[in-house]
Amino acid sequence: MTDTAVWQAVSQQADAWAALPIVQEFAHQLPRNSSDPTCGVPGKLQHMQAGGADVSGLPLRLSREVHMFDQLPNLAPDIPLDPAQWGAWRQAAARIEAAHRTTIAWLRSRMPGYPQLPAPQLAPGTALTTTEFTRRLAWQPGERAAGFQMKNLPPQATSTLQATAGQTRTLQESARALAAALQASQPWQQLAAARQALDEASRRELTAARARLKQRLSGAAVDAHATSRVLSRHNYRCTVLDEELATLTGPARQFADAFDNADKLVELAASDVFGQLALYGGPLLVQNVTDIDFEPGTLRHVHFSVDTDHWFNTGELIQIDDPLVADTCHLISTTVNFGSAIAPRLTARILPGTASLWRAAAPRA
User: Fold this and answer.
1) What 3-state class would DSSP assign to 304?
2) Please, what is the end-to-end C-alpha distance for the chain in angstroms?
């Protein structure tokens, strides 16, 4: 099954979620969807975005980040805001995120070998398992012991989303379609092959790496090597994991790499891209592009400049109006030179298999 099949399934699920009233009401208050992102809920979220919260890029995983930024006194904007409206929006955000994380857990339970996954990335304390702040789509505590692999559908997700009977059927069909597409995808097939290739020696190697990670990423160890700043602690967890992965050899390393690719496909397709489609719609058409430069590697990145007054947000889906880039892209960074005539420089990840899949729209005036 091609990459296109995964994106088509993601699009089907996004359409199902976008039709739900609770999702529509939640999305309406997001700054990128608001006609006036200077007041009310959109104004508060826009202020958080300016302060470093990834409101635009990770709209389905906002609860913890919004709570954290809401506690910072220097980030309390002096804007009109009805506390009841803010509370209602946060409750909707929590319900939507809970349903999303349940769906992700159910999709992950379809991985080859689940729940017995000896991946070092799932050792206690990594960026994928910590209960502290992480930019990764973490595996929740107790997730692999919850029996998701024995359930035909994501449990409680439709009731959490307050779906009608008809909407429930559509949600269930889209979840099954996405699970089937992931199972047939190349990264998941490679994970199955890497798991089969594990011998006793390589399993011992993986077990030893997990044991070292558990020790090096204990609460006391992280406290001793990283500051109290959330990004410092997150970066430390990632650095330690990279160091331990570098020690692996042969089938053990191949399995760890295959797991990483399979899990990142879930995060990218079923969360990052899915969230953009469900809450913002199709990609943004980017015109007047110059200086296109492709970065070599398996994960293709494209760098380019653009002559526009539009303010781009990381996480956006974009369609570059140039025949060199036929596929939709996922924006991952922007560089803006304030007070300079130099055009903004953007970097995006190309999503293979998405050419002509979604209709792009020009930025709003």
Assistant:
1) strand
2) 40
